[in-house]
Each structure stands twice: as C-alpha cells, then as structure tokens.
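Support reply, case 0932

Customer input (verbatim):
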Amino acid sequence: MTHWTKNELARIGQADELEMAPLRSDGTARKPVPIWVVRDGDDLYVRSYRGSAGSWYRAARASSRGRIRSGGVDKDVTFVPVSETAVNDAIDVAYRSKYGHYGASYVDSMVAARDTTLRLVPAV
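Our regenerated output:
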C-alpha cells in the first residue's frame, strides 16, 4: 500500500473540494463530480451527501477504484470503506470544523452520512 506525501495531504486537505471520478466496470472513468474531502492525520476521507443513493458513491463502491483531483494533485486511488466508530467520530469533527461555515444543514447531512465514509488510498 502506498501513502500520501505530506505535500499531497496538505494540498488536498486544504482544498475546499475534490473532483471524484470513480471507474466504471469497463475501467473507464466516470465524469468527475465535486465533493467535500477531509483529512484526519495521514488519511483523506470522503462521504456521499446523498448517502448510499449517491451515484458516484455507488460507482466507487462497485469498482473500489477511481481518480481524484484536488489542490493541484491528480491521483489514482482505491476507495476503502470505513466503519470504525472512532475514525468516523474524528471525521465528523473534521467535517464540522472544515465546512461549518456553509451552515448546519449541509454539515449535518455529511455527518449523518457516516455509513458512506470512504478512505482514499493512493493506488500503486
């Protein structure tokens, strides 16, 4: 497994959005969609605002692979589902801290979508 560099973590972690392009079953990338991304330690996480009904989320879960672009970083990634309570608790705090200025209704939706948490792991 590869890891994010400190520079990549800083650039993506500070970016307001991330462009997400999960791969289709034939290996081609879907059209990128903008989503929120948060950092916790040396890891990056995303959630689906629309919960498990989100089309990018369903595609990401089906393929487990995709491409992201954010903060000047363009990278192939693997999507790893996260279910650990402690990790999700930290991600809830990260979403509230980073995106709280958008209003509680948006952030509350992201916190409520914790069952869609995916860790972004750089592809080998």
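We compared this against your earlier run and they match. Two observations from our side: The chain has a mean pLDDT of 95. Helices lie at 6-14, 55-63, 85-99, 104-112. Please reopen the case if you see a mismatch on your end.
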